[in-house]
Design goal:
This protein is an alpha/beta fold. It has nine helices and nine strands. A five-stranded mixed barrel has the order 2-3-6-7-9. Strands 4-5 form a two-stranded antiparallel ribbon. It starts with 8 loop residues before the first helix and ends in a 30-residue tail after the last helix.
Length: 247
């Protein structure tokens, strides 16, 4: 389907150019056929109901065995890894000024169980996950991953939240970790980072870069000075992921 008519043409063109793929508008819940038509690098906008869930919810449900506070499979199959900037207005209703997507790779250990409990088929977040996580968790669940576009898009995404339908566990987990339920329209843009076959946009591009990078640096002298921990060995581990890493 075409991009939403009320989007600024220059914004859509820039995002589409970055992804080099088609622009799709999905009415939720998305069917398996809808997801099968998505192409890596394509731009996606969403209309319907989504919810937020991240480590606080995952620990509470998957590890502690708390029942879901709402029938998620019937309500929505779209899980956004984010923290909303929400506040009550004069009428007591919540208004969301923006959302901050968080890095999804930190949540891999909960995904198999979460897919089984929630029936989610779209995960939205920042930065994607490992290719092996897609193969192990997403493909069996018939799910895809959509990534936010760059930094500073939180306010833009906030404009796509029509209203807060509900919020659960805000007192217990805090606003950032609570399970929020949003009605959204023209919600995006997002890029298709993984498809139903488990292919990863980031992995494919990283592979292309890595095939040329050795030749690019061939013949250069070793640096005379190094910062603490700096290495030019591409096999060295640069960082170790932890479950409570930063956003």
């Amino acid at each position: 389907m075409n991009a939403p008519d009320n989007r600024d043409d220059s914004t859509v063109a820039t995002v589409a150019g970055a992804g080099a793929g088609p622009v799709t508008r999905l009415t939720l819940p998305a069917s398996a056929d809808d997801l099968a038509r998505l192409q890596l690098g394509g731009v996606v906008y969403l209309d319907g109901v989504i919810y937020t869930a991240r480590e606080g919810v995952y620990k509470r449900v998957v590890e502690d065995g708390a029942p879901l506070p709402v029938d998620l499979p019937a309500l929505s199959r779209v899980n956004f890894h984010c923290s909303p900037a929400a506040a009550r207005d004069a009428s007591g209703e919540y208004r969301v000024g923006g959302v901050t997507a968080t890095a999804s790779f930190r949540f891999a250990k909960w995904m198999r169980a979460w897919f089984a409990l929630s029936s989610a088929n779209i995960i939205i977040g920042k930065g994607g996950m490992r290719a092996q996580d897609y193969a192990d968790y997403f493909v069996p669940a018939g799910a895809v991953y959509l990534t936010t576009v760059g930094y500073g898009s939180g306010a833009l995404l906030g404009r796509g939240i029509v209203r807060v339908r509900d919020v659960f566990w805000a007192d217990e987990l805090g606003s950032a970790q609570a399970l929020w339920v949003f009605e959204v329209a023209d919600f995006g843009p997002f890029l298709v980072e993984s498809d139903l076959a488990g292919n990863s946009l980031f992995e494919l591009h990283s592979r292309e870069v890595n095939t040329r990078i050795d030749a690019l640096y061939a013949g250069l002298k070793a640096p005379a000075m190094r910062r603490f921990g700096e290495t030019d060995n591409r096999q060295d581990e640069l960082f170790q992921a932890t479950e409570d890493g930063g956003d």
